[in-house]
């Protein structure tokens, strides 16, 4: 999946927005103002995962701990094109759900979640 494909999947999720807090070369996808995925111009993709998924993906070598975000259980894919699109889309949906679940009840209601 390329940068445009990641954007298409992420922006189709409820309440998702795109921002450029790190400059125009990086697309940050957020829900309720909180980031759940980040992709750079060269194609590297980082996203939030569950504790179990973090252990599995990093131990198997399928993903690396995300720079600066690993302590929060984010993983990094140097080339998301190496992953099947449907599997990556599922991970992005899970990342969105993990972050959305941590929003306040009021914020979730406002976003229709």
From TrEMBL:
<dbReference type="InterPro" id="IPR058532">
    <property type="entry name" value="YjbR/MT2646/Rv2570-like"/>
</dbReference>
<dbReference type="InterPro" id="IPR038056">
    <property type="entry name" value="YjbR-like_sf"/>
</dbReference>
<protein>
    <recommendedName>
        <fullName>MmcQ/YjbR family DNA-binding protein</fullName>
    </recommendedName>
</protein>
<dbReference type="Pfam" id="PF04237">
    <property type="entry name" value="YjbR"/>
</dbReference>
<dbReference type="InterPro" id="IPR007351">
    <property type="entry name" value="YjbR"/>
</dbReference>
């Amino acid at each position: 999946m390329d940068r445009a494909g990641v954007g298409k999947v992420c922006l189709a999720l409820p309440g998702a927005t795109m921002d450029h807090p790190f400059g125009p070369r990086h697309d940050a996808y957020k829900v309720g103002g909180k980031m759940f995925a980040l992709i750079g111009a060269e194609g590297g993709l980082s996203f939030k995962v569950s504790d179990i998924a973090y252990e599995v993906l990093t131990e198997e070598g399928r993903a690396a701990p995300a720079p600066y975000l690993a302590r929060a259980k984010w993983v990094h894919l140097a080339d998301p094109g190496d992953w099947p699109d449907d599997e990556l889309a599922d991970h992005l949906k899970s990342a969105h759900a993990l972050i959305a679940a941590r929003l306040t009840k009021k914020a979730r209601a406002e976003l229709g979640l």
